[in-house]
């Protein structure tokens, strides 16, 4: 095969980007085919060809999977936000469980892992409580905001997104209109921006079980007094917005947040309720994007951790203390560690607000504090790291702490499996894993896994 060839293939699998998978020859060469489902026979054109893989575009579908459905979004396929809108929900859940099983077998080295069925989301549409839109000055548009095209930084202009909470769509439409009316411009990517090209990102958050709605505008430099007045004027035009902040990020790279945030309008904080607990946080703090499903995940993970009535729990990557509250409900003393100061500073306040006494918060990198804390014995370690998983120092400290059980919450099956393999080599046996569909219509999956000490 060479680039440009027409090929006729039958799709054998699906990756978590929603692309059909075809293995050729000795199966070392893989072709990824957009908009093709397992079992479908398609005629496609090879668009790119690398050493071990290629990508292809469907020219004609010769057969159609019974799992294929009509996407709800008009820009599905062009926008990279969702990958699975063309697949029935039952098939999405099966695919996500299979993703976890495959990772644990292939990367974790676990034979026939005990992976439960994927827990469906309470809402399949209109569930997402946060939207993050990159903004650019591009192609004659002074302010283009939207979502990235798959595998690129090309922005597909925003239009109402069906996975967002309805109030977020209302706020985004009002905000973008207001920013353009006030003359704001997006920043240029990859080139030096002109003095008036300011905005890099927009983040809008909305409580699913409350009224609070918060917006953050992220810019590449401090605002002038005139710009601050104009931004406040834009915020005042948005009906239902609780508050707006402006964050300054003058560093290169794709990380959204900078180190300085100033208030612009209304509230600087927002609150969300999960079950009987209420949590306050700011725009940059980590909080699960699907509040209803987060409640199910936290109740399950806390149940794994609290089995056996532990006296002491070490929790790493604790965010604003949302899972922490569920862990402390069993009466254990919880040491909660979070590195991102804008989140960590709310752990103690959220505990007090919910009447929880036995929480000891620490603001530090998990890898820095885990070693010092590992000297004091704990019964359970709970981790909920970013997609990159746990640092090797964290794994070493967990093993040194010798807890009876480890509960690992992960949004990335690959790094979950990698870290479980490390822990297994240190004397822990993975007993079970349960996927949760935190992100319907996308290829992402959240997982809670339990490991118990079985070796020296």
From TrEMBL:
The keyword tRNA processing does not apply. S-adenosyl-L-methionine binds at residues 288, 317, 338, 384. This is 23S rRNA (Uracil-5-)-methyltransferase RumA. GO terms for biological process: rRNA base methylation. GO terms for molecular function: rRNA (uridine-C5-)-methyltransferase activity. Keywords: Methyltransferase, S-adenosyl-L-methionine, Transferase. The active site is at 411, 411 (nucleophile). InterPro entries: MeTrfase_TrmA_AS (IPR030390), MeTrfase_TrmA_CS (IPR030391), NA-bd_OB-fold (IPR012340), SAM-dependent_MTases_sf (IPR029063), TRAM_dom (IPR002792), U5_MeTrfase_fam (IPR010280). It comes from Cloacibacillus porcorum. The keyword Phosphoprotein does not apply. SUPFAM superfamilies: Nucleic acid-binding proteins (SSF50249), S-adenosyl-L-methionine-dependent methyltransferases (SSF53335). Residues 1-60 form the TRAM domain. Belongs to the class I-like SAM-binding methyltransferase superfamily. RNA M5U methyltransferase family.
């Amino acid at each position: 095969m060479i680039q440009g060839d027409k090929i006729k293939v039958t799709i054998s699998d699906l990756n978590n980007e929603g692309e059909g998978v075809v293995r050729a020859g000795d199966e070392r060469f893989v072709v990824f085919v957009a908009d093709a489902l397992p079992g479908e026979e398609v005629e496609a054109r090879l668009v790119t060809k690398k050493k071990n893989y290629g990508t292809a575009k469907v020219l004609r579908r010769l057969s159609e999977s019974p799992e294929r459905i009509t996407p709800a979004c008009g820009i599905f396929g062009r926008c990279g936000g969702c990958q699975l809108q063309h697949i029935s929900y039952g098939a999405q859940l099966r695919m996500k469980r299979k993703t976890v099983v495959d990772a644990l077998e292939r990367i974790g080295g676990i034979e026939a892992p005990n992976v439960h069925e994927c827990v469906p989301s309470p809402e399949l549409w209109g569930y997402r409580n946060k939207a993050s839109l990159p903004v650019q000055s591009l192609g004659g548009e002074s302010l283009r905001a939207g979502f990235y095209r798959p595998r690129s930084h090309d922005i597909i202009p925003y239009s109402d997104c069906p996975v967002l909470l309805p109030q977020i769509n209302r706020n985004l439409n009002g905000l973008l209109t207001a920013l353009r009316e006030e003359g704001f411009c997006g920043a240029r990517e990859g080139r030096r921006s002109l003095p008036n090209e300011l905005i890099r990102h927009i983040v809008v958050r909305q409580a699913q079980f409350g009224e609070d709605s918060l917006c953050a505008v992220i810019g590449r430099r401090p605002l002038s007094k005139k710009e601050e007045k104009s931004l406040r004027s834009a915020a005042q035009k948005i009906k239902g917005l609780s508050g707006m902040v402006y964050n300054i990020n003058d560093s290169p790279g794709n990380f959204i947040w900078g180190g300085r945030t100033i208030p612009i309008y209304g509230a600087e904080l927002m609150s969300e309720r999960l079950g009987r607990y209420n949590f306050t946080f700011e725009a940059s703090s980590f909080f699960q994007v699907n509040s209803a499903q987060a409640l199910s995940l936290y109740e399950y993970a806390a149940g794994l951790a609290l089995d056996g009535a532990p006296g002491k729990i070490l929790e790493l990557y604790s965010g604003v203390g949302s899972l922490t509250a569920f862990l402390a409900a069993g009466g254990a003393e919880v040491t909660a560690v979070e590195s991102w100061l804008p989140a960590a500073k709310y752990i103690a306040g959220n505990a007090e607000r919910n009447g929880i006494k036995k929480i000891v918060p620490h603001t530090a990198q998990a890898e820095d504090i885990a070693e010092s804390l590992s000297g004091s014995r704990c019964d359970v370690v709970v981790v909920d790291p970013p997609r990159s998983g746990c640092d090797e120092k964290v794994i070493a400290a967990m093993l040194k702490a010798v807890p009876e059980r480890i509960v690992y919450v992960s949004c990335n099956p690959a790094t979950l499996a990698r870290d479980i393999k490390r822990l297994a080599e240190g004397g822990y046996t993975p007993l079970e894993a349960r996927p949760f569909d935190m992100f319907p219509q996308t290829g992402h999956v959240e997982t809670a896994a339990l490991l118990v000490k079985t070796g020296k």
